[in-house]
Amino acid sequence: MKTLITALFLISSYGSFAQILLKPDRIFDGKKMHENWVVLIEDNKIIQVGELNNIQISLGAKEIDLKGKTLMPGIIEGHSHILLHPYNETNWNDQVLKESPVERSIRAVNHVRSSLLSGVTTMRDLGAEGAGYSDVYIKKSIDNGIIIGPRLIVAGPAIVATGAYGPKGFHDGVKVPLGAEESSGNQVIETVRRQLGNGANFIKIYADYRWAAGEASNPTFSLKEIEDMVSTSESAGRYAVAHASTPEGMRRAVLGGVQTIEHGDGGTIEIFELMKENNVALCPTLAAGDAISRYNGWKGDLENEPVRISNKKVSFKEALQSGVDIVFGGDVGVFSHGENYRELEIMVDYGMSNQKVLESATSVNARVFHLDKLGNIKSNFLADLIAVEGNPLKDIKVFRDVKFVMKDGVIYKNE
Ligand SMILES: [Zn+2]
What is the extent of the structural domain holding 391? Predict the structure, then answer.
């Protein structure tokens, strides 16, 4: 609460300045680190960036000293679920079956505030998981200034093949709310159109899933069904992405034309190369697997490392080798909102350089998600900026405690 009051105070105390000059030790512009650069903001835009001598500042501009800090674009979270909370608090089935969309939306109000204050200024949300279009309405509430949160890009209910999704374990006469919307055959075109009409910004498809609880995943939609959903999305100026973790599910999703593959745990070097050839990015969600393994009792030690984690480390290295675009996205919601930094740390731990991780969370995500004016510090881009203590190229853990957050030119945190 204290942070929220501070945020509101900051909005009113800085909001009236036409120009704001931010003076950190260094700036990561989305691609490169620059020592001794400053950035000038006017209203909600970055208007100049570079060495202080080269910047023309209006009289009366407000100066903000960010000494000792690195300024960079706001983090773009690639895979969140604002309508879920950690599975060690309440398991997924019980969240879908026992928590109403109202309760889940009230929780989401807290989730989006925590996300913004931890440095996430844009978030791609990958499905409401049984809460209908609550993600669309939370986004609207943020855009209308009723609550604070990141810019949201939302999937709505997501689409699963008939019979493939959960909660499962009931006899056929019991109707339970599903975690996504079922569809099959020609009907998939209608489902995509309805979801887009109801406010989904993109379409999420489940290309494979566990057909029965406890078994391994198998493909769900046919290539033809995926092609129909993708082309229907694209003709509406949107795009589709796929949850997939089996090689065949991933292959169909790539050939069907999706933009990103979510998870990709069973990806092989051949599949990652196919993705690269077809310009499909991988969102590896490393932190979700890590969190679930810990909920099952793993302490994080190498000695007792679960097979799931060892395999994921191998496939992540193969993805890095293949050169496929890797988008930052942790599946936050499986673990606590605001702890998005966990994915950044695990990406480094599994072999990605700090430099590449920073690019992924900013300029790469902006490019892959078609966010033209975000993810980079350049003139005319939107003023979504954060600052961390020290240098994130040397220590990825600095994201545990983000010190400064600006979204759309408004300061929400300055510690
Ligand atoms: Zn997810």
Answer: 2-74+375-414
Compute the distance from residue 209 Cα to the ligand 1 centre, in Å: 12
Q: pLDDT at position 213, please?
A: 86
- Shared domain check, 258 and 407: no
* pLDDT level of residue 12 (50, 70, 90 thresholds): very low
* Residue 77 Cα to ligand 1 middle (Å): 12
Q: Among 307, 285, 358, 298, which residue's Cα sits nearest to residue 70?
A: 358
* Backbone phi, psi, residue 83, to 5°: -95, 10
Q: 115 and 260: one domain?
A: yes
Compute, in angstroms, the gap from residue 65 CA to the centroid of ligand 1.
38
Pair 85, 224 in one domain: yes
CA 354 to ligand 1 centroid distance, Å: 24
Work out the pLDDT band at 275, boundaries 50, 70, 90: very high
- Measured in angstroms, how far is the CA atom of residue 81 from the centroid of ligand 1? 6
Position 276 scores a pLDDT of 98
Whole-number Å distance, alpha carbon 317 to ligand 1 midpoint, is 21
Please tell me the distance between residue 271's alpha carbon and the centre of ligand 1 in angstroms: 21
Gap between the Cα atoms of 179 and 48, Å rounded: 46
Are 380 and 295 contained in the same domain? Answer: no
Cα of 262 vs centre of ligand 1, distance in Å, is 8
Q: What DSSP element (H or E) covers 270?
A: helix 269-277
- For residues 182 and 34, membership in a common domain is answered with no
CATH assignment of the domain containing 112: 3.20.20.140
User: What percent of the chain is modeled with pLDDT above 70?
Assistant: 96
CA of 372 to the centre of ligand 1 (A): 24
Query: Which residue in 44, 237, 23 sits closest to 151, CA to CA?
Result: 44
Question: How many Å apart are CA 128 and CA 152, to the nearest integer?
Answer: 13
Whether the per-residue pLDDT at 72 is higher than 80: the answer is yes
Residues 116, 62 share a domain: no
Ligand 1 mean position, distance from CA 234 (Å): 22
CA 86 / ligand 1 centre spacing (Å): 12
Residues 20 and 121 in one domain: no
β 62-73/385-389 pair status: antiparallel
* Total of domains in the chain: 2
CA of residue 165 to ligand 1 center, whole Å = 14
Q: Is the pTM of this model over 0.85?
A: yes
Bridge partner list, 407: 410
pLDDT, tens only, 93-103: 999 999 999 99
